[in-house]
Amino acid sequence: MSGEAASAGGAGRTAGHGVGNTAGNTAGSTAGRTAGSERVAGIAVAAGTPRLLDGLRVLDLTRNLPGPFATRLLADLGASVVKVEPPEGDPARQIGALHARLNDGKDVRTADFRSPQGIAQILDWAAEADVVVEGFRPGVLAGMGLDLDVLRQRQPRIVQCSITGYGQTGPWAQRAGHDLNYMAVSGVLDQCRSLSGEPAMANVQWGDLAGGSSPACIAILAALQAAQRTGQAQHVDVSMTHALHAHLVMAQSTGPLLQPLLGHAPGAGEDMLNGALPCYRLYRTADDRWLAVGALEHKFWKAASQAFGHPEWADRHWQRGMLPHTAESKALIEEVKAVVGAQPLAVWVERFEGVDACVTGVASTAQAVLR
Questions:
Q1: Integer Cα distance of 294 and 278 in angstroms
Q2: Which residues are catalytic?
Q3: What is the C-alpha to C-alpha distance for residues 32 and 39, in angstroms, rounded to an integer?
């Protein structure tokens, strides 16, 4: 949901959302950010230590999901984030809970991106920042008079991070897109298929988050180090499509290994980590739930075999020479299916409690427990 690519003014956004959000207002609540917490943004820090990014000042000009989630992570780690929205508000306000989650802990302000007065105000805020994050199409920021050459006149060591769909240059640079499009053209969606072969529309926005937010945080911190070392302003661009493509490292490595066995490139359920290995696969339980068997290494498969009540399975493993797609491997998959499918998920969860075998139940969102 990059969504910011259309224009500086946010054409097509619903009027009325966010009106009255003036300087000094803080969006959302502080839930999940309790003082003394030892884990923020999924990162464990020593209790009582200063927040890791204390003193870092971030100006967030982004909307929707990729940029706001990136700056939320920075805020969770201690950065001071000023989020600037147009008078009609960030489109994420149409889903109030989403906007609150993305902007918790930020100072949310309003400025008119189409007026000289609004741009002047944004420039004043940028002069006080270490980092500016934006998600417009290439060239839009320069058209508003907010490009790096202008920003560094106010702040010589400023870091500008752009989050784009397809990069700053190239034939696709000016195309609009959302998470689904970046997943599709990067090749990642092709690797997210059900066993029947249909592409699966995940309800986690991997393009926006893994392709946009996370690389943006990495790029920002790297650029800050370079700016401090050189004393010069830095511009980093995160292409969500290119970043997603980089995540195909496993498929691009294992696919060529299995292609000679199959006679074609691995498809749904045919690669090492998407269903071809008996020890690394999802199995349906008697109550139509799922058991995630991730016993990739032989030591874990040996422990899992014991817990399943079939110690004779232990050496039927790829690290013991049983190649995927062989008759023996396919037979073992069917055997495990039968055993797992004979009991409800609760039985298996209890059976594997305390067993170091990388076997877990598939929890719903409501059931998910962070341990």
A1: 9
A2: 208
A3: 9
pLDDT band at 38 (very low <50, low <70, confident <90, very high): low
Phi, psi of 28 (to 5 degrees): 75, -170
Q: What angle do CA 187, 192, 196 make, to 5 degrees?
A: 125
40: which strand partners?
43
pLDDT of residue 45: 78
C-alpha to C-alpha distances, 237 to 34, 147, 240, nearest whole angstrom: 33, 13, 9
Q: Identify the H or E element spanning 218.
A: helix 214-230
Both tokens of 253, joined, read: 């490595």
Largest CA distance in the chain: 75
Residue with the two structure tokens 């511009």: 235
Q: Which amino acid is at 278?
A: P
* pTM, entire model: 0.87
Q: Is residue 5 scored above 80 in pLDDT?
A: no
**Tokens matching residue 365:** 């969102």
Nearest alpha-carbon partner for 211 in 1, 63, 39, 60: 1
